[in-house]
Amino acid sequence: MVKSYLPYEARLVELDLFSLKYRQMRGDLMKTYRIIRGRECALEFADFFELAETEHLRGHPFKLQRKLVHADVRQNAFSKEGRWCLERTL
């Protein structure tokens, strides 16, 4: 049983769990991978992402094109968050 007076970080360590922010980012990365690879049947790649149109790709042919966002509503959309998560981890 975990002691209720422990701070959040200490409870995570005691239970050997990852933080909520990490789990959400990991889920977004997995969803992005499935969409890009065509393993997510209900979602179309073109609805969320565009591939970069450049011949100077390093590492892999799946570099995603950044879209300009003019509204705060789109700032936290899945496609934008998933892309930023990918860029941070690669």
In short:
This is Integrase. With 90 residues, this protein is mainly α.
Q: How does the SSE layout of this entry go?
A:
Layout: H1 8-15, H2 20-37, H3 45-48, H4 72-75, H5 78-89
Keywords:
single chain; 90 residues; mainly alpha; 5 helices; 51% helix
Instruction: Please trace the helix and strand order, writing H or E for each element.
Output: HHHHH
The gyration radius over C-alpha positions equals: 17 Å
Q: Uncertain spans, ≥5 residues at pLDDT below 50?
A: none
Q: What is the total number of structural domains?
A: 1
β content, as a range?
under 5%
Oligomer: single chain
Give a structural overview:
The chain is mainly alpha-helical and 90 residues long. The chain has one domain (19-89). Helices cover 51% and strands 0% of the residues. The protein is built from 5 helices and no strands. It has helices at residues 8-15, 20-37, 45-48, 72-75, 78-89. Helix 2 packs across helix 5. The model has no long low-confidence stretch (mean pLDDT 74). It comes from Schistocephalus solidus (Tapeworm). This is Integrase.
